[in-house]
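Project standup — Tuesday

K.O.: blocked on the structure for the chain from last sprint. Re-posting the sequence here as requested.
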Amino acid sequence: MPDGTTLILGLVFGSIGMGYFLYGKRSEQPAYRWTGVALMIFPYFFENTAVLIALGIGLLVAPRFIDI
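H.V.: unblocked you, prediction finished:
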């Protein structure tokens, strides 16, 4: 059962992921689009707060280094 911190982090990363997805869709940049999908989905699979923060920040900066 997730605690409050996990739920809040999932909400934050999911919201940012939705923004990335919409930005990637409008600007036709697949790196942002797929990173947005990953940001919306990954909180469902991890309950550890440190893992959520590390993966979330990693996914947030990933489109800057990925050129598709």
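K.O.: great, moving the ticket to review. The chain has a mean pLDDT of 92. Residues 4-65 form one domain.
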